Amino acid sequence: MAFFRILQNCMRMPGKASVFALNRVSMRDTLLYIFILMLLSSVPDIIDLLVNGRFSNQTYESVLYLQVFLFYPLYIIFIGIIAISLLSAAAYVIKTVMKRKLTYHHLWKLTAFSATVPLLLNAVFKGLGYRNIWITVLLVVLLFFYLIKMIRVFPIISNKK
User: Fold this and answer.
1) By the 8 A CB rule, do 150 and 115 touch?
2) How does DSSP classify residue 69?
3) Are 27 and 114 in contact (CB under 8 A)?
4) Residue 93 burial (CB < 10 Å; 0-12/13-18/19+)?
5) Global confidence as pTM
6) Which CB contacts under 8 angstroms, 24+ apart, belong to 74-80?
7) Rounded average pLDDT over 104-129
8) Cα separation of 6 and 110, whole Å?
9) Does the pLDDT at position 58 exceed 60?
10) What is the pLDDT of residues 19-37, one digit of tens each?
């Protein structure tokens, strides 16, 4: 299955072989992988909403379930795609400073894949009840560490004229 192959390569990052293997993944598989990963990372929040968001009225409870199972996952996926796009723009700046041969398309995919470990760690921390701004900062630093290591794998732009 493509999801597990991509997950395996993401866990081996920022190795050169895994970066190039992930670079060959289609955009359809990348988006599907991100959707599944975002849904998995939101499981602690969904459990928290279900446990702490109960209403006594039957009508309101059905609205709560609609929000939890339909609107919240769509919201998380939407925010995730926007966040990946903004982080890819930051990676584009890093790529320009490092003078590497990469396009925004490749950076978007690499940013999406480099978010695997930080997203899973975030889900684990949320599941254990640790919600702190410093954990978020640490995970963003980890994400940029992965991005920089992956950008360094690609060749430098040559100035042949």
Assistant:
1) no
2) I
3) no
4) exposed
5) 0.79
6) 76/38, 76/39, 76/41, 76/42, 76/45, 77/34, 77/35, 77/38, 77/39, 80/34, 80/38
7) 88
8) 12
9) no
10) 888 888 888 898 889 888 8
